[in-house]
Amino acid sequence: MPDYKAPLRDIKFVMSELLDSEQHYANLNGGEDATPDMVDAIIAEGAKFCEQVLSPLNQVGDREGCTLTEDGVKTPTGFKEAYQQYVEGGWPSMTADPNYGGQGLPHSLGLVMSEMVGTCNWSFGMYPGLSHGCTNTIETHGTEEHKQTYLTKLISGEWTGTMCLTEPHCGSDLGTLRTKAEPNADGSYSITGTKIFISAGEHDMAENIVHVVLARLPGAPEGTKGISLFIVPKRLPNDDGSAGDRNTVSCGSLEHKMGIHGNATCVMNFDGAKGWLIGPENKGLNCMFTFMNTARIGTAIQGLGAAELGFQGSLAYAKDRLAMRSLSGPKNPDGPADPIIVHPDVRRMLLTQKVVAEGARALIYLTAQQADLVHSGKTEEERKAADEALGFLTPIAKAFLTEIGYEAANLGMQVFGGHGFITEWGMEQNVRDARIGMIYEGTTGIQALDLLGRKVLMTQGESLKGFTKQVHLFCKENADNEQLKEFIEPLAAINKEWGDLTMKVGMTAMKNREEVGAASVDYLMYSGYAVFAYLWARMAKVALDKMVEGTTEEMFYNAKVQSARFYFKRMLPRSKTHAETMLAGADSLMDMPEEAFAF
């Protein structure tokens, strides 16, 4: 297993030099505490915790997994103690509301910590990650009593949280869920049903678990319009706020999974469990989207983490592993062979991982800044614009990054050759852990329908125009910059084509709605490559400007330009295939009769 090293120089580059986080934080309500010194100290301390405490537990969690006993679920060796250190460090409260014990720091700063935690040990990171979503849901939709009872404990880290959506007969189609909520005389509800695939649903790391559960009230409308949201704690709170008697909710079994073994993925049985309504009746799905959007941005980090961990491991191996000679002559003449990093195909795999990880970091941090503005922007106009941008970027970040992050994880394994298939190196674990990213919190296909159908076509393209206008202005401002010409010209071209393709897909969809589903995944992937082109062009500009000014880090900045060049030459051309495929029409997918698929 590779020793994780937090990529602090690139984190600082994206935050400070690309996205000007210092000015961004100064423009937020309550952002004055996020000074450069404070931010640097937090990230450095977080990096130390991830490198020294969590990273060594990554392979332990994969090897041991979780165990269901009579006393509940036991997490792998060291997880419980690591979580206590996590709580003692104040990490659960970093971005939460100060009125309930939080530190009130910007959400984008919290996502930097989430990146480091998730990269070094994704299974561990899912426990506090789900708590963040639960916290945001109660903070947004809960009553004051809910907040005093549950929010304070979630923010302190004493209790953790989950989201309970999926049932055995329904995955993403929540309109068919069957879990029932019957009113009790005391104003609470009796929740009965079974939920599956519940990450962190039961464990021994905290004294209580707060389940946020979707269920139906008596007489509720059918479909998604009849779903309500409930808080169902593992242990019922006492009057003094402590965890009391056990509620009638239990883990029936643990799923046997391809990866993320260190996280407990549970079948949860609610047997008349006591719960409390959160938000309006029959508006549970609307409230749950607060949780789900948080989770989707968090899942995008998995794509980044898979690429970063694979890159770190395979880069070290490629520098050390000797095999064959360079085609242009020996590069290690005193040794029996050259290190494999000299070979073009190994370079292709390493550079792909590098530009995926660094591009993903830029996209996630950009998206996180929009989340900051939605939460703490100083004007209604600013908050509204950020919300539109966040809605547009979230499905791209979640789906595109998990897709290409998984590709990068596979390339990290491929660099090792046969050794990559062997457990001790950790590369095959990275691949297995990364595979879930394309499935949970809405599959790639669902994210694609959300992007093309809801975010683009249903807004008459306005959400797309908001982003492409930014790209257009960037291209216009730098049109005369000869150093940037190799990036600006293809960026301007794909930005224009993006709008043209959207118009064509929209026109065909007016005649046949199946065209939206047929084009959506290719549209999303195309959009991802276009967004990356914009970010890599911006990163190249920052780097070139720094070298013109004069710097002692010329190798770092020159590597940024060379990485951008690799992206534009060898990855952006993939968009051409997606462009052609999205216009291929639904007929080639829908014409074949079901009975003709197999004989």
UniProtKB/TrEMBL annotation:
Classification via SUPFAM superfamilies: Acyl-CoA dehydrogenase C-terminal domain-like, Acyl-CoA dehydrogenase NM domain-like
Keywords: FAD, Flavoprotein, Oxidoreductase
Domain Acyl-CoA dehydrogenase/oxidase N-terminal: 48-158
Cofactor dependence: FAD
Residue ranges constituting the Acetyl-CoA dehydrogenase-like C-terminal domain according to the UniProt record: 467-593
Domain Acyl-CoA oxidase/dehydrogenase middle: 163-271
Molecular function terms, GO-annotated: flavin adenine dinucleotide binding; oxidoreductase activity, acting on the CH-CH group of donors
Annotated ranges, domain Acyl-CoA dehydrogenase/oxidase C-terminal: 282-450
Top EC class, one word: oxidoreductase
Similarity section: Belongs to the acyl-CoA dehydrogenase family.
Function: Involved in the assimilation of dimethylsulphoniopropionate (DMSP), an important compound in the fixation of carbon in marine phytoplankton, by mediating the conversion of 3-(methylthio)propanoyl-CoA (MMPA-CoA) to 3-(methylthio)acryloyl-CoA (MTA-CoA).
Protein name per its UniProtKB record: 3-methylmercaptopropionyl-CoA dehydrogenase
Organism, as annotated: Marinobacter confluentis
